[in-house]
Write a structure and sequence with these properties.
Order of helices and strands of chain B: EEEEEHEHEHEHEEEEHEEEH
Shape of chain A: elongated
Structural class of chain A: alpha/beta
Radius of gyration of chain B: 22 Å
Order of helices and strands of chain A: EEEHEHEHEHEEEEEEEEHEHEHEEH
Strand order of the largest sheet of chain A: 7-11-6-1-4-5-12
Number of helices of chain A: 8
Number of helices of chain B: 6
Strand content of chain A: 25-35%
Shape of chain B: globular
Distance between the termini of chain B: 60 Å
Oligomer: heterodimer
Chain lengths: 316, 253
């Protein structure tokens, strides 16, 4: 069986889970596609998973009320062993990539990390992934009785519902005690669409000028286009914007249909987070900015002049 | 308490990456200590300077001869000694974690610091895999860290924001931007570093094989349209851009 650990947020199954189902079906690995739902009060999530999977295993436990790397790893490894899974697929989110390696070590399995493509070749599972700040596409392969994979968000199409919903089963788990104690939590909420799920992203860099301009132009244009808001590291370091909006090596990796970069110079660390966007638009007054090398559409000009015109034109 | 800090050597961010016969060729490329690992080295030094009861800081690197340079940088920053396991073998994080765990045990380390995602393999797995091998907890993407006795407190990023945490040593901490500002090695410290111990070790001692094979590597740059729009007339430029996004790229409604 192929075991997928469900990702969800705000009580809803995340798109990444549907993408993992596609990854499982495209991998050429055999057996039923099984989704494991870990958490508490997860009925709605399990139902949504059942619509796309052959079967759903539900561990609805108070101990799993909040995510914890050691608990998630223990749960996934136990179910993989009991269900004799030959493939374990975990989301390539920050948390997924945090506990997936632990699952691999527990199962004494190889780990294919952050896969953008999967294929079976003989006895091996082959994956493509980005390396060297996303400048290189590497093909790696591994074999074994079980292989652990994490899947990059946005790399696979979301699975469509099946004709008949998969069966749901409750599972028992023997979980360790959590050793990391969370003493505070700050959720960076935004009314806008999440960066990793947005079709269009408008990102501002230092070239925007100041925080007020950022609100006016970057947020203004994003709202006009129904887009997510991104920021460069320089902007986040300067305290203009929260870390949750940062795109790049140390922030989020995004792959929208359109990425609109305002006053962004285009450092390689930033490109590594957005360089796979389908279309890249750059507006910057520095004609030499490296961002123009990767842009599909570029305007050399002042953000403060071009963007108000853009907001106005988008109104029509 | 002893801190083990892991160091990788990666191409400078501005360096061009070349591919030769299906694999990345670093010949002639400017190589530096990985930026995220540098945060780890710096944090180890700060924990000691902050009076956290840190007895010794040891830097560990696994890789070819040239990796010595990255270890020398760590020594010049202030690390006490270094261990270099010299090998040309490409080891994936799961395989490498086996070595790190063995070294940590042999050294009696209580804290391991490693970069959250290094700029060569774009992997976040080494810290977590090492923690699992040792049976230790891990704190990833840490941007604030305090040590008091054997108690760690701090803050780290999670999927939808950040968390403050508390955990006991031994533990693995992965580092990132914002944790600190790494110091530059001074000339006297660079001179002093030359006399510090850099012990060589043999991969065979650890009985480790790669668990993942690299089949191919290629530079895949998406062909971009590179279409420039004249920005002199903002109104006209805005309208032209929207028209292209709507009717040519078809990415806007």
């Amino acid at each position: 069986m192929i075991l997928i650990v469900a990702e969800y947020a705000g009580g809803k199954l995340a798109k990444s889970t549907l993408e993992m189902v596609t990854a499982a079906r495209e991998s050429g690995r055999e057996g039923p596609v099984t989704v494991l739902v870990l958490g508490q009060g997860t009925a709605e999530i399990a139902n949504a998973a059942a619509a796309v999977a052959d079967q759903v295993l539900v561990a609805d436990l108070p101990a799993l009320a909040t995510y914890n790397a050691e608990l998630w790893a223990a749960a996934a490894a136990q179910i993989a062993q009991e269900g004799e899974a030959h493939t374990v697929i975990i989301g390539g989110s920050r948390s997924g990539r945090e506990y997936a390696p632990r699952v691999a070590v527990k199962l004494d399995a190889p780990y294919l990390e952050d896969a953008i493509h999967l294929a079976s070749t003989g006895t091996a599972l082959q994956a493509q992934r980005y390396t060297y700040l996303a400048r290189v596409t590497e093909t790696v392969e591994a074999e074994g009785p079980v292989v652990v994979v994490s899947v990059k968000p946005g790399a696979f199409a979301p699975a469509a519902p099946l004709a008949a919903a998969g069966e749901q089963y409750d599972v028992e788990l023997d979980l360790p005690a959590a050793r990391v104690e969370v003493t505070g939590r700050s959720v960076e909420k935004t009314s806008r669409v999440a960066l990793t799920e947005a079709d269009v992203i408008v990102t501002g860099g230092r070239g925007v000028g100041n925080p007020e301009n950022f609100s006016l132009y970057v947020e203004g244009l994003a709202d006009r286009l129904g887009a997510g808001v991104g920021a460069t590291r320089a902007v986040v370091d300067a305290g203009w914007r929260p870390y949750a909006e940062q795109v790049g090596q140390t922030g989020k990796t995004v792959q929208p249909k359109a990425y609109v970069a305002l006053g962004v110079s285009g450092a390689v660390q930033h490109l590594s987070g957005m360089g796979k966007s389908r279309y890249i638009v750059a507006i910057n007054k520095d004609a030499e900015a490296p961002i123009f090398k990767v842009a599909d559409y570029g305007i050399v000009g002042d953000v403060n002049q071009i963007v108000p015109a853009l907001i106005e034109a988008a109104r029509k | 308490m002893k801190i083990l800090t892991l160091v990788r050597q990666v191409p400078d961010a501005e360096a061009r990456v070349k591919i030769n016969a299906g694999s990345v060729d670093l010949e002639g490329t400017t190589l530096v200590i990985d930026g995220m690992d540098e945060y780890g080295v710096e944090e180890a030094l700060r924990l000691r300077e902050g009076g956290g009861g840190v007895e010794e800081i040891v830097a560990l690197a696994v890789g070819p001869k040239r990796v010595e340079d990255a270890l020398r940088t760590a020594l010049a920053m202030g690390v006490d000694r270094a261990i270099h396991i010299e090998t040309g073998e490409l080891l994936d994080p799961i395989a490498l974690s086996r070595i790190v765990a063995q070294v940590a045990q042999a050294e009696g380390a209580g804290l391991i610091l490693v970069g959250g995602q290094e700029a060569d393999w774009d992997s976040q797995a080494l810290g977590a895999a090492t923690a699992e091998r040792l049976g230790w907890p891990q704190l990833t993407w840490t941007n604030e860290l305090q040590l008091e006795g054997d108690r760690l407190t701090g803050r780290h990023d999670v999927d939808d924001g950040n968390e403050s945490f508390r955990a006991s040593l031994p533990a693995v901490v992965t580092t990132q931007q914002g944790l600190n500002e790494p110091r530059y090695p001074t000339l006297p410290n660079i001179m002093k570093a030359k006399r510090k111990e850099l012990r060589k070790d043999d991969l065979a001692t650890y009985g480790v094989q790669p668990t993942v094979r690299v089949v191919n590597a290629e530079i895949q740059t998406r062909a971009r349209l590179n279409r420039m729009i004249d920005g002199k007339d903002p109104q006209a430029a805005a309208e032209q851009l929207l028209d292209l996004l709507r009717n040519e790229a078809k990415v806007l409604a």
